Amino acid sequence: MKNLKQSRCVIGIKGQMPDPDFPVDIWFDSLKSVANVLSKENQQLLKVIAEQQPQSVTELATLTGRAVSNVSRTLKTLDKLGIVCLTRVSGLVKPTIKFRSFIVVGDYCE
């Protein structure tokens, strides 16, 4: 069970009642905010990090075909949220993922 908790991230929407079975890891202001952060493009970025384990932001940008500045900005946002971890190794910033899946919880039908 411990690995399951480490591999998935529970996302809650502020103002919604959390589910006691799913303690929230990250709170967002709205469902739209969640959609922006976990866009298809960003999900692909996370997948490449998980599968190819790039050693730098520049390598990740090359692997994904995105501009280094765009990847760097996205990773900083994901790092602030706790979705990725950015570690300086030998002068390079290495991205690693903290979660492999996401669960969005909340009571949306009142």
In CATH terms, the superfamily is Winged helix-like DNA-binding domain superfamily/Winged helix DNA-binding domain
Q: What is the gyration radius calculated from CA atoms?
A: 15 Å
User: SSE order, as H and E?
Assistant: HEEHHHHEEE
CATH topology: Arc Repressor Mutant, subunit A
- Determine the number of helices (DSSP H or I, runs of at least 4 residues): 5
Low-confidence stretches: 1-5
Mind describing the biggest β-sheet? Answer: 3 strands, parallel
Measured as a percent range, the helix fraction is 40-55%
* Terminal CA distance: 32 Å
CATH class: Mainly Alpha
Average of the residue pLDDT scores: 87
What fraction strand?
Answer: 15-25%
User: Architecture, CATH level 2?
Assistant: Orthogonal Bundle
- Structural class category: alpha/beta
Q: Within the largest sheet, what's the order of strands?
A: 2-1-5
Query: How many structural domains?
Result: 1
